[in-house]
Amino acid sequence: MYYIRMATSIGELLDTLTVEGELYEKLPNKEVRCFACGHRCVIREGKRGICQVRFNRDGELRAPHGYVAALQSDPVEKKPFFHVLPSVNALTFGMLGCDYHCGYCQNWLTSQAMRDPSSDVSVNYIRKISPEGMVDYARKTNASIVVSSYNEPLITSEWAVEIFKQAKAAGLMCAYVSNGNNTPEVMEYIRPYISAYKVDLKCMQDKNYRKLGGVLQNTLDGIKRAHDAGLWVEIVTLTIPGFNDSNEELWDAARFIAGVSKDIPWHVTAFHKDYKMTDPDNTDAKTLIRAAEIGREAGLRFVYAGNLPGQVGEYEDTFCPGCNFKLVKRRGYIIQEYHITGEGKCHQCDAKVPGLWHKNPSQVALNGLGVPLPVY
User: Fold this and answer.
1) Mean pLDDT, the chain, as a whole number?
2) Phi, psi (rounded to 5 degrees) for 221
3) Are 130 and 70 in contact (CB under 8 A)?
């Protein structure tokens, strides 16, 4: 890995770190239609898509390639994936750009590059790297999973697939942490390489989704599409006071998820003031517990309240859907107890527990550090 000096502009530099994309079709008059996300941008020659990092050069779609702008080895619980190899490290990388512009984005310095001038400092985070180099970093940090996250991975899927091909060959699992604004084309493209797909279901009102740059139905369709593709899906709703925390809206979200599958874990997590959204109060534990209780009442078998470790009681833990035995005890990102067999069953009643579990339960690291690890 090596650093890159700043070009005349962040756009000029990023445009050099591209290859011809694979998720597009050519149209008349040198226009192209991009399939990387649900916006399905038609891009004229010399113009950019909504994400700003995919663009049309002389009738050819150019896509980000060959670098990372964020890279660290996280506890997999931080993604959050609670039903995917608990306690392992997940080497997580991101690039620049996003198809949304959420006002509360915690990763806005990278996600809003090319859109918000305040994020131009992210040019200093760019580091060129090879797929083989990513696998080396996974090994050095004892990671079992490689995850594309931080910015929106759908818009950089060509690069992610290059990395994932090498990672899978090395015996690593791969996953996406996404806003769910996918298309049939991009899901077909990434499906051979990923096992798990986490979606941010941001709210259940289309007018609010559009304020964030998205369309509610696109995300709902994206969740169904990922589940129908056989991926392990977990869903997160960042619960924001006054934005999406009404009982009605939480019920709508819970019922929708249950309608796809009652086995999909739903994480309701705490908002804190960030970026442009500084008016709402930070989410308290009482609100998260209320949301989690709604999820359970709607029939969801696995509901978690996150970001407030030690304050939400049993909503950090996994219980058997058959006998209600506590299978996984957590505090924050730390696994304290683990009682799932190598066959993915309850240690007490032998009921099947949906998820991607350790084949060898002795590999679960109990009472570990539960903190991200820098890779350089």
Assistant:
1) 95
2) -65, -35
3) no
DSSP string, 154-218: GGGHHHHHHHHHHHHHTT-EEEEEE-S---HHHHHHHTTT-SEEEEE---S-HHHHHHHT--HHH
What pLDDT, on a 0 to 100 scale, did the predictor assign at position 8?
57
Cβ neighbour number for residue 226 with a 10 Å cutoff: 27
For residues 264-282, b (16+ Cβ closer than 10 Å) or e, as one string? bbbbbbbbbeebeeeeeee
Quickly tell me which residue has 């949304």 as its tokens. 100
Residues 340-349: contacts with CB within 8 Å, 24+ apart?
346/320, 346/322, 348/320, 348/323, 349/320, 349/322, 349/323, 349/325
- Considering the chain, tell me which residue range(s) the CATH 3.20.20.70 domain(s) occupy: 67-374
**Is residue 132 within a helix (H) or strand (E), and if so which, with residue range?**
helix 131-140
Mean pLDDT on 327-351:
97
Question: How sure is the predictor about 182, in pLDDT bands with cuts at 50, 70 and 90?
Answer: very high
What is the reported pLDDT for 374? 84
The residue assigned the tokens 């916006």 is 39
Number of CB atoms found within 10 A of residue 261's CB: 14
- Would you call 365 helix, strand, or coil by DSSP? coil
Residue carrying structure tokens 């959050």: 80
Residue 15: the pLDDT is 95
* Distance from C-alpha of 374 to C-alpha of 376, rounded to nearest angstrom: 6
The architecture (CATH level 2) of 67-374 comes to Alpha-Beta Barrel (3.20)
Q: Do 75 and 367 touch, CB atoms closer than 8 A?
A: no
Distance separating alpha carbons of residues 126 and 3, to the nearest angstrom: 7
**pLDDT beyond 90 at 103:** no
* 42-43 β-sheet, strand order: 24-26, 32-34, 42-43
The DSSP H or E segment spanning 225 is helix 216-228
Residue 284 DSSP label: P
> In this model, does residue 273 exceed pLDDT 80?
no
- pTM beyond 0.85: yes
- pLDDT tens track for 282-296: 999 999 999 999 999
Confidence band of 3 (pLDDT split at 50, 70, 90): very low
